[in-house]
Amino acid sequence: MAGSLTGCSSGAPGDDSAGEASPTTSTSKAAARPVHDPPSAFDISRGIPLPKSVLDGHTNLLGQVGNGDLPITLYQDHVFIAEPNRMQMLDMATGELTTVAKPTTVPVGANDEWKARPVAPPLLVERGSTSIAVTSFVVNETTTGTRAAHQNAEIIAVDAGTGEATWRLAIRLPNKDGGDTKASLVGGNDGSLALRTTKEYDNHYVSYGIDATTGRQTWTKDGFAALAVDDGVVVGAARDEPWGVRPSGFDATTGKTLWR
Fold first, then answer.
1. pTM, rounded to two decimals
2. Longest dimension (CA), the chain
3. What is the pLDDT of residues 166-184, one digit of tens each?
4. Where are the beta strands (DSSP E) in 17-85?
5. Which residues make beta-bridge pairs with 196?
6. How far apart are alpha carbons 250 and 168 in whole angstroms?
């Protein structure tokens, strides 16, 4: 089974007038891309194929799609595609595919099909009049001089309209037993981001606040699993010994406790 983006038309099948612009008396300059009526038919023969990696880990033995959301995010006329070792941008008008983000070294599990799948979709975050597409990778950093080997979370943001790099942030992760670290991004439309991390064989979470405008780390919460960001508040589950966990809310900018 192959994924594809399908072209469409606004007229009935066989109608030669489909797609023709309506008469207008406007003298304004034409838009860079034409504006069409809402589609009434889809031409599946003219679809733009998505990379095969989009379906990796998301299909069963019968070729049926399932197992979570596909690792794609749509923004205007672009599709952002997350892969274990990069993020790509597909132009839906031309079919041009461009790599817009890569970590500094090979991510954990990128060469291991079982560890690398499935990949979460890129996160789209509004920043005033612009938007960014953000993705994260966990990478191994080797011993260098007096610095011990460790794992970093690399978060990369690109302009959603152009694909140009906006910022890159590396967060050093705690050296704890429990296997490789898994990282997930959550964000809101107020310019706030949070990164949730946990170990492969452990349910101990650590979350980090990120300023989506500057790409700067703003706070760290040990024992907290950030689940959502909205209206300046990051909410999730905080460890509450000895009773387990409890719902908690923190200021998304400062990390200050708001309620528990």
1. 0.77
2. 72
3. 999 999 998 877 677 889 9
4. 41-49, 72-75, 78-83
5. 184, 207
6. 24
